[in-house]
Automatic annotation (TrEMBL), chain A:
Residues 225-436 form the ABC transmembrane type-1 domain. It comes from Paracoccus solventivorans. Pfam families: BPD_transp_1, DUF3333. This is Phosphate transport system permease protein PstA. Keywords: Cell membrane, Membrane, Transmembrane, Transmembrane helix, Transport. Coiled coil: none annotated. One of its GO terms (molecular function) is phosphate transmembrane transporter activity.
UniProtKB/TrEMBL annotation, chain B:
The keyword Disulfide bond does not apply. Keywords: Signal. This is Phosphate ABC transporter substrate-binding protein, PhoT family. Residues 20-305 form the PBP domain. InterPro entries: PBP_domain, Phosphate_ABC_transporter. Residues 1-23 form the signal peptide. It comes from Paracoccus solventivorans.
Length: 447, 343
């Protein structure tokens, strides 16, 4: 600072009037604030567009059109021998049952007096989901007394009819679509107006297993959610104890020497390794060497454990570091051993940080796709895995790979399903992050 | 302390439960992404109609599937490989070398390969000659091999629209690519007489390679992903044209316009009659060494090709498969466990 008395007197200089330098500095600050606001706005806009498209395309996956019509279980179709022997009846394939459904729909059209021109057999058969015949066959085999009776049967419509009710397929598009027709569109609208076909909440989407390419309407996330849950269970059971034990040793007990330095650098490096590398490792080590089965949650869980460990170790060490040394000094001062100090005082105080780190690590693992692709999780699995521990070795899918899988399929209805699955995955991630925030708020201690 | 005890217990639990994982009761299938939808439909119907566990079906491509299939015998290896091309002699030899002695080849139907452009673009009526002339890496001009000069379809054939050439072709890991090279590029090369000109310049062998080489100046783009990626590229490029499987096109007729080839529009009927020139058989390969080891394997192989599934009017044909006219012979061969290399 120069002495103000020595500078030449400048006219009209006042604190109330900004000079050129101050104006420049103020302008620079305003510009910087604008850049900051623009950066945030860009990020928010990108997020908003992403969320908007996901919800626009995916929200309808939670709604499904169903038809309720009386079906006559004709004995000559399902039990040609006439002896009601379940073993004999099991020889009748699902394709025969579609005749019953076709007849039922045709009767329903005649009964409600719907006049639609150019309706072909294909339009009738393609109106109802292929899942309906499988469900009907299962019901008849489970209860052979149904044969010969007329039952009120509620079933899904095909994905094309479903899309018509949701407005995704218009009458003009139906004319161009090789998989449907204008007649089928008119029939769908007429049956909707008479209340035969109704849209309702689609629980199947969350609970049912995957459906094949010919029945997108039946595809659900059940197996994928269960598979993801099993994998998270393995990650939690393995990564939390191992990660916490490693961090405690490194932070509280390890001598500071070259070896521990190398370990520390390697942990930081592992956290930055692309996840696909862990997938290759999993394929080589767990499947080819140990001989664990393909497509099994156990392999996925182990791979994700390896991937999550560095994250948990780093966050746990940070949480341990944040516990003030005075706590340790006080404990040691009253005669506690170092282990007692750690387990009675330091670790409980660091627990909120540890749990937050663990949950964030789990959330990251839940959304991970790349390593699972190599170990056979991108598979068509329609059987629920059994309860653990055996279920950990049964084939299963996972939420993110199910999304990937559905985006690869030809039928446009799977695109809607994939977006719906993204919504489910986002809901899980949001819930996990909220738990992490809640834990931090509830147990956080400040010094 | 409790932490350590917990982790030790967890590891012990894992080690203990890893032991009974040797046997498996569900069939494992992997391979061609073209066959994948048919395999999932058959697997789902198999689970609907029998008491066996539903087979687990993976994609990954024909070559990758056959490689996994031939890796050996035992519960760790897959039971069925899907393929959109026949298994080569080298692959079969690899199988035999790894102890996979009894491989049953099952041809369950045919698939057409179609050229389709965006729904809002102009109509195309192509011939294999046009496609070869538009996509070949090198053509013969004035008796010399030159890099393909064609920029627009009209440069190739004046009756075609004056639209920039931009074709998305399945990448080399796809079985579809091989069929495309053989049935379109090589056929077009023959039909236009380019092969004879090339052979006169450099000999037969070089001519064969030059006939199927695609241009790499960005007008023919390899797509390593699935048809959905090709569709997205065609959607975003108004000049784009893609190579698709017939069943994929049938599912997306609201977004795609198909080009007839040599005057024939691809449909299940025209492929079945052989009128449409670009089609290929679809296969799956069954490891007969696993019969009795994996429950339901033979039953699934037989179920896949019964008339109610793979025949006309069955769910596979509904999805776009062209049924095999000789399905009865295929059924008999599967029932008799006719292994490859036995005759």
């Amino acid at each position: 600072m120069s002495d103000p008395a020595q500078t030449a007197p400048r006219p009209r200089r006042s604190l109330l009037q900004t000079d050129a330098g101050t104006r420049r500095r103020n302008a620079a600050e305003r510009r910087f604030r604008t850049y900051g606001a623009a950066a945030i706005l860009t990020a928010m806009a990108a997020l908003a567009v992403l969320m908007f498209t996901v919800f626009r395309d995916g929200a309808s996956a939670f709604v499904q059109a169903r038809a309720t019509i009386p079906v006559v279980i004709a004995a000559d179709v399902v039990d040609p021998q006439g002896n009601r022997d379940p073993a004999e009846m099991a020889k009748i394939l699902t394709m025969s049952y579609s005749r019953l459904l076709d007849q039922a729909l045709t009767r329903e059209i005649a009964r409600s007096g719907i006049q639609v021109g150019g309706l072909t057999q294909r339009d009738i058969t393609g109106f109802l989901s292929a899942q309906a015949r499988a469900d009907l066959r299962r019901a008849v085999l489970a209860d052979p007394s149904l044969v010969g009776q007329e039952i009120e049967w509620r079933m899904m419509t095909s994905s094309r009819v479903d899309a018509m009710l949701k407005g995704r397929i218009t009458r003009e598009m139906a004319a161009r679509d090789a998989r449907t027709s204008v007649a089928q569109y008119d029939l769908a609208m007429a049956l909707r107006d008479r209340g035969v076909v109704r849209a309702g909440f689609n629980w199947r989407f969350i609970t049912a297993p995957d459906g094949s390419d010919s029945r997108p309407e039946a595809a659900g996330l059940g197996v994928a959610i269960l598979g993801s849950f099993y994998m998270m269970l393995i990650v939690l059971v393995l990564a939390l104890p191992i990660g916490v034990a490693a961090s405690i040793w490194l932070e509280e007990f390890a001598p500071k020497n070259r070896l521990t330095d190398v370990i520390e650098v390697n942990i930081s490096n592992l956290a930055a390794v692309p996840s696909i590398v862990f997938g290759i490792l999993g394929l080589a080590a767990f499947i080819n060497f140990v001989g664990l089965p393909r497509s099994a949650p156990i392999v996925g869980g182990l791979v994700l454990t390896l991937m999550t460990l560095p994250t948990i170790i780093i966050s746990t060490r940070a949480a341990l570091k944040a516990v003030p040394p005075s706590i340790r000094d006080a404990a040691l001062g009253v005669g506690a051993s170092r282990m007692q100090t750690v387990f009675h005082h330091v670790l409980p105080l660091a627990m909120p940080g540890v749990l937050t780190g663990t949950i964030l690590g789990l959330a990251q693992a839940l959304g991970e796709t790349a390593p699972l692709m190599l170990i056979g999780m991108v598979a068509f699995v329609t059987t629920y895995p059994s309860a653990p521990p055996q279920g950990l070795f049964d084939p299963a899918s996972a939420l993110p790979v199910q999304i990937y899988n559905w985006t690869q399929r030809a039928d446009p209805a799977f695109f809607e399903r994939a977006s719906g699955a993204i919504i489910v995955l986002l809901a899980f991630l949001l819930a996990m992050n909220l738990i992490a925030i809640w834990l931090r708020r509830k147990f956080e201690r400040r010094w | 302390m409790s932490m350590m005890r917990m982790s030790a217990a967890a590891l012990a639990l894992l080690a203990a439960s890893a032991l009974p994982a040797a046997a498996r009761n569900q069939i494992q299938v992997a391979g061609s992404s073209t066959v994948l939808p048919y395999a999932t439909i058959a697997a789902e119907a198999f689970a609907d109609n029998t008491d066996f566990a539903a087979p687990v079906v993976e994609g990954g491509g024909s070559g990758a599937g056959i490689k996994q299939f031939c890796a050996g015998v035992g519960p760790r290896t897959i039971d069925i490989a899907n393929s959109s091309r026949p298994m080569t002699q080298a692959e079969l030899a690899d199988c035999h070398a790894n102890g996979v002695a009894r491989v049953i080849e099952v041809r369950f139907g045919y698939d057409g390969i179609v050229f389709a452009s965006g729904i809002n673009g102009p109509d195309f009526a192509l011939s294999t000659q046009d496609i070869h002339a538009a996509l070949a890496a090198e053509v013969v001009v004035d008796g010399r091999r030159t890099p393909n000069p064609a920029r627009r379809w009209a440069d190739v054939n004046p009756t075609l629209p004056a639209q920039e050439i931009a074709v998305f072709v399945p990448g080399t890991k796809h079985g579809t690519r091989e069929v495309f090279e053989e049935k379109v590029m090589a056929a077009g090369c023959d039909a236009s007489g380019t092969r004879a000109e090339l052979a006169a310049l450099d000999g037969d062998k070089a001519a064969r390679a030059a006939c199927t080489a695609l241009r790499s100046d960005g007008r023919a783009v390899d797509i390593d992903g699935d048809y959905t990626e090709t569709l997205a590229r065609v959607d975003s490029n108004p000049n784009g044209m893609g190579v698709f499987g017939l069943s994929f096109y049938e599912n997306n007729t609201t977004r795609l316009k198909v080009a007839p080839i040599d005057g024939v529009v691809p449909t299940v009927a025209s492929v079945a009659s052989g009128e449409y020139p670009v089609s290929r058989p679809l296969f799956f390969y069954v490891k007969a060494d696993h019969f009795g080891l994996v429950p339901g394997l033979k039953e699934f192989a037989e179920f896949f090709v019964v008339d109610a599934i793979a025949g006309p009017g069955g769910p596979l044909a509904d999805y776009g498969l062209v049924p095999d006219p000789q399905l009865a012979a295929v059924q008999a061969a599967v029932a008799a466990e006719h292994v490859m290399g036995a005759d």
